[in-house]
Amino acid sequence: MKEIIQTDTAPAAIGPYSQAVKVGHLLITSGQIPLTPSGDLVAGGIAEQTGQVMRNLEALLAAAGSDLNRVVKTTVFLADMNEFAAMNAVYEQHFTAPYPARSTVQVARLPRDVRVEIEVIADLS
Asked: What molecular function does GO assign, one term (predicted)?
């Protein structure tokens, strides 16, 4: 049985999907882009955008009664792999060891032409 997780402290879905889904002991988030909870695109470069994405993920995890310490896997989508180091500098401020597994890929384009999108899987057990 799946439970839909929804919160006003993260941006609403901009399509036919859920912000996050809890199934069993797992929480799976949709990819978060740098939109504020009110739906505005964050100004600035990759560092500012990554910071907003991480705040959105924290809000979704909190809505499920969890936090970043329970994340076991992340997937990072970058518009430009040359921005990896700047993204990673912000990303690592939000996680502590032992770190989650991670995949990072460059993609041709992201929604609203943002620089970064991140999704996570967290263990809620």
From this structure: deaminase activity
To the question of pTM greater than 0.70 for the whole model, the response is: yes
Please check the confidence at residue 17 and state whether its pLDDT lies above 90.
Answer: yes
- Cβ neighbours around 15 below 10 Å, total: 6
In 10 A of CB 66, how many CB atoms? 20
Bin 19: left if φ > 0, else alpha if -120 < ψ < 50, else beta. Answer: alpha
Query: Which position has the token pair 């970043």?
Result: 68
Which tokens sit at 40? 């505005």
Domain boundaries, the chain: 2-123
| DSSP code of residue 111 | G
